[in-house]
Amino acid sequence: MAYPIGRLATDDIEVTGALPPRGIFCPRTYYIAVVFSGHGVFSVGGQSYDIRPDSLLLLSRGDICFFGAGTETVECCVFSFMPECLWGEREQLLKPFGGRRCYAAADMSEELSAHLARLWQLRATGEKTAVPLARLMLSETLLHLSETEHTPTAEGAMARAAAYLASHAKENITLDRLSDEAGVSKFYLCRAFRDECGLTPHAYLGYLRVLMAEPLLESGMGAKEVGEAVGFRDYSTFFRTYKKVTGRAPTAAGGEETPE
C-alpha cells in the first residue's frame, strides 16, 4: 500500500513509498521510482523489465505501465511530478525520459548509486522538509542521468569504443573522449571492457598498438622509432607493453632493443 511522503499544494510533485499494485497511467505526469527492496516485473511500451533492489524506473507522459505478480511487495521512493517543479534546465533534465525505461545497479556510476541511496531518507523527514528536499534530489537524479548517454547493452558500447580505438590508436585518447564516442559513461565503459575482455580500455589500446608495431619491426625499423610511430609516448612504456603482450622484448631487424 502506498504511503505519502510529501506533496506540494500545487500538485506539481508527489513522493510516495510504494508502487501501485497493478500499474500506472501517466497522462500528464512523469514518474521515477528508485527500488530499495523486493522484486517484480513491469511492462511498458511492449517491453518487460525486471525490478530488483537498486533499480531505477522511468515513466514518461503518455506511458501505461503494468506490474507483474509480486510487484506490490516492492519498497521504493516514487516521484510523480510535473516539469515545473524541477530546479535547473528542464529540457536537459527531461532528456532521460526519451531513452531507456529501466536501469540496473550495474548501469550506474558509483556517484549516482550513492545519491539514490540517500533518497530513502525522505521517509524519515516531515512533509515541510521532504518536499523541497524531494525537488532538489529529483533534479539531481535527472542531472546525473542526463549526463550519461544511454546504450542498452555493453556489446554496443564495446563495438563503438573498439572501432574508435582502432582508427585513432596512434593518438593520445583520454577516457572522457572514448566514453563520449561510445555513448556511455566512463564507469559503464570500463566495466563493460572488464566484463567482456578482461582488459581496461587503456590496456586494450596498448594491445592494438603492439599489433601495429609487429609489421614495422619486421620491416627493419628500430624499436624506438616503432614505439613512437604507433603512439607510445616513450620507449620504456612501449618496451613494457610489448613484452607484456607478446612475452618477449621488441626486436627489429638489427637485433633486440632494450629499454632506456
Overview of the molecule:
This protein is of the alpha+beta class. The chain folds into 3 domains: 4-146, Jelly Rolls; 154-198; 203-256, Homeodomain-like (Arc Repressor Mutant, subunit A, Orthogonal Bundle), CATH 1.10.10. It has helices spanning 90-93, 110-119, 127-146, 154-167, 175-182, 186-197, 201-218, 223-229, 235-246, and strands at residues 4-7, 13-18, 23-25, 30-37, 40-44, 47-51, 56-59, 64-67, 75-81, 102-103, 251-252, 255-256. The strands form 3 sheets. It has a 6-stranded antiparallel beta sheet. Strands 3-8-5-6 form a 4-stranded antiparallel beta sheet, with no helix packed on it. Strand 5 and strand 6 (47-51) form a beta hairpin. Mean pLDDT is 79; it is low at 1-10.
Largest sheet properties: 6 strands, antiparallel
User: What oligomeric arrangement do these chains adopt?
Assistant: single chain
Number of domains: 3
What fraction, in percent, of the residue positions are helical?
Answer: 40-55%
Put simply, the count of helices is: 9
What is the global morphology? Answer: elongated
Contiguous uncertain segments of 5+ residues:
1-10
Question: Descriptors for this entry?
Answer:
Jelly Rolls, 3 domains, 40% helix, Arc Repressor Mutant, subunit A, four-stranded antiparallel sheet, 9 helices, 260 residues, single chain, alpha+beta, six-stranded antiparallel sheet
